[in-house]
Structure formats: C-alpha cells, structure tokens
C-alpha cells in the first residue's frame, strides 16, 4: 500500500468512514508505524475539536434580520455574466479546464465526446442576461439530449443534476488541485496561481490555455 | 416578539422552520439564525482568519439564505445548504483579499481562552500554545484543504454532508481531508509542536 493510501485509509478510519475498518484494525495491530500515525491523527483531531468557539455578539441576529428585510425591499437580483471579451474568455478557459479534467478522468460523469457541444452551450449562456433565460435555454438543450455542464459563480445552477453543475469556485479548487498534483503551489505562485490563470490572462500558463482553447473550440 | 416563539420553535427541525419562514414567519427565520450563527461564524473565522470579517461574511450568508428561501427544497440536510452559501462567500472573500494583495488567511487576531476555571496554569498555557499552533497551521493550508478540514473537524459534518457542501465526490472529500491532516501535522511539527 502506498503512503498516500495509508494516510487516506487512516484518515477515513478515524472518521468512521473507512470501507473496511476490520482490515485497518488488523493492520494497526501489527504495524507500529501506522499505529503511531493513527495515534497522531486522533490527537490532532481531539485538539481541533477542542478549539475555541467564537462568541457571537448579541446584536448579530438584529443585524441579520435588518439586512434581510432591507434586501427583501430591493428588486430581485438578476443573475448575469457580463458578456465582455475578458469574461467570456475567462469562462471559456474554465470550460476548457473542466473539459480537460473530465475528459482525463476515466469515471468522469461527463463524456468527453460531448465536450464541443458543452463549450458552445456554456459560451452561449454568457450572452443571456438573466436566470430565467439561461434556465429555459439550458432546459431545452437538455431535453434535446445535450449533456452539458453549467459553470456559475454561485449556487444558481442547483436546478441542474449535480453532475452537470459546477460553481466557479469549485472550478478554481479543481484547477488548484491539478496544479498541486503537478508540484506547483496554486495559491502562492504569483501569476502562475489559479487566480492568475483565470483572471490575469497575461501569464505563460494562460497563454498555453488560450492556445488549447483555440484548438478546442475549432477556431484556429 | 421572539421570546414567545422560542418556547415551541426549538422543537421544530430545520426544514420545518424553513417552511414557516417561507410562509413569512420572521420568528422562524430568526430561530434558524440563532441555531446556526455560532457554527457559521466559526466556519467563516477559520476560513478567513479574521474574527471581524467572519461576522460580516456570516451575516451575508444568512441574508442570502433569506433571499433564496422560496427556492429552498428539503432535499438535503439544511446545514449543507447554509454551509454551501457560507463556503462560497468565504472563497469570494479570499479571492478578493488575494486580488488586493492581502494574501492568504492569517491566524485569528484575537484568541480568547475558553473558560479556564480550575485549570492548572501550566495546562492552560500549554492548551493556549496548542491552539495558537493549530490556528497558524490551519491558516497556512490552501482554502481547498482548509475548508474540508474545518467542515469535518470543527463542524463535525460527515463525508456525505461535506461532499454536498463542496459539490464534489465523497472520494474527493476523503483524499482531500487526508492531505489536509497530513499537511497540518507537518506544519505543526515545523512550527514547534512536535509533541502535540
């Protein structure tokens, strides 16, 4: 068993989430190194659980209720993505990353064969200016059997099946993990971090992704 | 106005309170806020590293919850919906901080000790030191690792609930959590907490 698998198994074991706890128990009885790690994890968990809980100021509830009432008075927020070239390009980059991730994953729920359609669909949604138009257009496409993935800045796509929906932030996290797996530091790398990739558009990584995008979209 | 409601509302589960709030019952919504204000602020604190900003982010999470009440359906545990909103807001906060050049989360500015009555001074000092090291270690984790660790270890959510909050697979939760714990353990050692 690799080091990573041991850590995964022990971590899940202390949470009561291990697939085969009996096997792990047997292993712990005969492996002092894993038994030591197991104890360390338990101690760490115990200390984390005992961390201080914040004191909530009494006026917090009043503030929340006042702001909630105030927000209710405002007209309903229109969900929109500005159709500026920067935003469209940034979103398209996210889609490319998504397609690459899912395409490279053997058990990915989104078949790579539909990725071109996905890109077209998601790009088009940037041109709509409100929730309902996006919902209608995407529901129609799904009825037609298009297996699309919707990228949104928040949970506004929760009407979609879970496998067809991903938030902007989740995409950032996924990209970060990809970078990390390749030995980079996604959050500390200046222009090469995930935000640099998506927002900066000037880094070499963004240029590579841009090139991939061009090929991917069949526009090159 | 809320005191009378408190007598019976604690008996209602979260989704029953949501249903009442959807029908316009402000007391029911206030009860939800009371029920979750500590865990949500705590989550936001650990994610942002700022006690003050955490309150603002948590407040916004509840306001957004209120705003989207009509769309809520009792399909999952209510806490996963609320933590999902809070989580998106904290990630937005971290992104904004990053853009402004204020870098990553930092250890909390203030760290009051819990009720220390009857505790030996040396034990108290040691616990304070451990908490400081943990805060520093958590603050240095990436947001992806920090959030999964906080949701599990501090909020006590199980893997299914965390996967719902993060909109990812359970296997991802498992591996990300293992990595977060290992990184935290290593950070603690490097920060001088070898004997933790």
Give a quick summary of the entry:
Chain A is mainly alpha-helical and 220 residues long. Chain A is built from 10 helices and 2 strands; from the N terminus they run H-H-H-H-H-H-H-E-E-H-H-H.
Explain what this protein looks like in three dimensions.
The complex is a heterodimer of chains A (220) and B (196). Chain A has 10 helices and 2 strands, in the order αααααααββααα. Chain A has helices at 3-14, 21-30, 32-49, 59-73, 85-104, 115-125, 131-143, 168-181, 194-200, 204-217, and strands spanning 150-152, 165-167. By secondary structure, chain A is mainly alpha-helical. Chain A has 2 domains: 3-49, no CATH class; 85-217, no CATH class. In chain B, helix 2 (14-22) packs across helix 3 (26-48). Chain B folds into 2 domains: 7-103, Orthogonal Bundle (Rna Polymerase Sigma Factor, Chain: A), CATH 1.10.1740.10; 118-196, Arc Repressor Mutant, subunit A. Chain B is built from 9 helices and no strands. Chain B starts with a helix and ends in a 6-residue tail after the last helix. The interface between A and B is large, with 53 and 64 residues.
